[in-house]
Amino acid sequence: MSILVLGGAGYIGSHAVYQLIDQGYEVAVIDNLQTGHQGAIHPKAHFYKGDIRSREFMKTVFEKENVEAIMHFAANSLVGESMLEPLKYFDNNVHGTQIVLEMMKEYGVKHIVFSSTAAVYGEQEIMPIAEEAAELPTNTYGETKLVVEKMMAWCEKAFDLKYVSLRYFNVAGARSDGQIGEDHNPETHLIPVVLEAALGKRPAITVFGDDYDTSDGTCIRDYIHVEDLIAAHILALKYLQNYGQSNIFNLGSSQGFSVNEIIETAKEATGIDIPVQFGARRSGDPSTLIASSEKARQVLGWNPARTSIKQIISDAWNWHQHHPNGYEGEQYD
Ligand code: UFG
């Protein structure tokens, strides 16, 4: 039987595939390669190129694979873009997942681990944010993930689907053996953008706003190493299989770092005096987002091991240095 990983050629999905295969799971991958990379797909995974929105394509995969459970990473995930193209986000993230859930119903697959986001919370007064906080998304991206959480809850009532929804804070880093890493085009996330500036691929890192109500005026975020994040997915899968219960968990390190602190740590980790410039605020950015991950620790037994921000940045830097152009132009079997 196989674990079907949707979006298994993307940044986070590819790290899931590698860790699942490390742990002896049989893995099938679906990816339309819109933002994913052929080079990020583990050679031992059974790869199906296609779109989760195509029922015909999805049926061919479910006919061939004996699917035990699903990990669902296939989504558009840029907050800014989601505000400009909301329907693209509803189409891929909501309609796409509707088809996934239809397939699960049709083929009797009961368990799904779903990638959700801190963006479901929007602006919150109380830090750290616990799962009980009100869901008040301030962008389309967060709204689409919240809609899917609700869809899954209704499916549970109707046909006993069981889901674990994992609300990610700021995911960063790369596989510690350097085999795979983060490659978005265009890149918008802080840590890889800072590292691109370190490599000279950008003239400088622009800090979006230094007049926030925080210690140094720049935004504070909670960064979590991609390998710790995936460890929680595998625990979530086991939780579904052992207890047959649905649940929702935050995944973060429960520590906040300002944009300035990230840049300073990147200077230390790279040994490069990265040029910095200050710009206007980016629309939709909350000033501070820090997770309470107590629930994941208590219920799943999650114990993140790579919580040092320097290690997160060093692992990302290791991959960036060896792949300055990402996966582009590299040869794969
Ligand atoms: N930032 C800069 N300069 C840059 C890029 C980012 O100053 O060039 C700042 C942003 O303004 C923000 C912080 O760095 O304050 C982090 O920005 P990212 O774009 O790396 O991440 P976000 O916090 O905006 O978004 C992340 C995920 C989303 C998720 C969200 C939850 O990428 O998918 O966290 O709030 F929805």
UniProtKB/TrEMBL annotation:
This is UDP-glucose 4-epimerase. The keyword Isomerase applies. Its EC number is 5.1.3.2. Coiled coil: none annotated. Signal peptide: none annotated. Residues 3-252 form the NAD-dependent epimerase/dehydratase domain. Homodimer. GO terms for molecular function: UDP-glucose 4-epimerase activity. GO terms for biological process: galactose catabolic process via UDP-galactose, Leloir pathway. It catalyses: UDP-alpha-D-glucose = UDP-alpha-D-galactose.
